[in-house]
UniProtKB/TrEMBL annotation:
Family annotation (InterPro entries): 3-OHbutyrate_DH, NAD(P)-bd_dom_sf, Sc_DH/Rdtase_CS, SDR, SDR_fam
Pfam families per UniProt: adh_short_C2 (PF13561)
SUPFAM superfamilies linked: NAD(P)-binding Rossmann-fold domains
Protein name: 3-hydroxybutyrate dehydrogenase
GO annotation (BP), single: monocarboxylic acid metabolic process
Family listed: Belongs to the short-chain dehydrogenases/reductases (SDR) family.
Sample GO molecular function, one term: 3-hydroxybutyrate dehydrogenase activity
Organism of origin: Sphingopyxis flava
């Protein structure tokens, strides 16, 4: 329970990787603030489950991270209710796929706002409190696309490359303040969203389930295995430990070898 008494804010954490990270931090005793959209009853059930894991507090904040004023209000509530944010996990993100000449400008603006600018605003608001405490952990969920590109994902690739650069710059600024700043870059993660796409892809391409998994989804991952939410979450939890105090400014790949090629 090395995080007892510390508070973690995880954005985009009502499901998927974000929720997995929130659970991993709660297991180590952290108070948790989850954030994101979804069914109110389901979110409340997850919030209660987090309190059972950490034996402490868990809160839900519905802030729309595309609005800087909403992020500022979320941090003000975190300060009032939890004594500030000790661990910030910038996980929120969205995707849109389109050729560049047809890419809707509003989708570009949305992806940059949610995947990159929200992290900037959260970091600038978190750092002063971390400096006062002489301790802090800032972690971003980036992507293999923070290191390499794929076609038709211009906004997402640009935002994730930007997130990796933001991580490096801030890490250097706060290196002497007891604050580490890192990003985790997963490859394809096994989630219900991915699983539910398989039958449609089988039908559309005339492939078997195994062919879809290995030749379509995992074509770029040499291990031919999906990354799991738990594997990403375990790395995030490790980065909060004292043993990770000298890991900063790093982009840590969890991608089955995708970016080694």
């Amino acid at each position: 329970m090395h995080l007892k008494g510390k508070t973690a804010l995880v954005t985009g954490s009502t499901s998927g990787i974000g929720l997995g990270i929130a659970k991993a931090l709660a297991v180590h005793g952290a108070n948790i603030i989850i954030n994101g959209f979804g069914d109110a009853d389901a979110i409340e059930a997850e919030r209660k489950a987090l309190e059972e894991l950490n034996g402490g507090k868990a809160a839900y904040d519905s802030a729309d991270l595309t609005k800087p004023a909403a992020i500022e209000a979320m941090f003000a509530r975190a300060e009032a209710d939890m004594g500030g944010v000790d661990i910030l996990v910038n996980n929120a993100g969205t995707q849109f796929v389109s050729p560049i000449e047809d890419f809707p400008a509003e989708k570009w603006d949305l992806i940059l706002a949610l995947n990159l600018s929200s992290a900037f605003h959260a970091i600038r608001l978190a750092v002063p409190g971390m400096r006062k405490k002489k301790w802090g952990r800032i972690i971003a969920t980036a992507s293999a696309h923070s290191l390499v590109a794929s076609p038709f994902k211009s906004a997402y690739v640009a935002a994730k490359h930007g997130l990796a650069g933001l991580t490096k710059a801030v890490a250097l600024e706060v290196a002497d303040a007891g604050i580490t700043v890192n990003c985790i870059s997963p490859g394809y993660v096994w989630t219900p969203l991915v699983e539910n796409q398989i039958p449609d892809t089988m039908k559309a391409r005339g492939l078997t389930r195994e062919q879809v998994i290995n030749d379509v989804l995992l074509a770029g991952q040499p291990t031919k295995q999906f990354v799991t939410v738990e594997q990403v979450a375990a790395l995030a939890a490790f980065l909060t430990r004292d043993e990770a105090a000298n890991i900063t400014g790093a982009n840590l790949s969890v991608d089955g070898g995708w970016t080694a090629a």
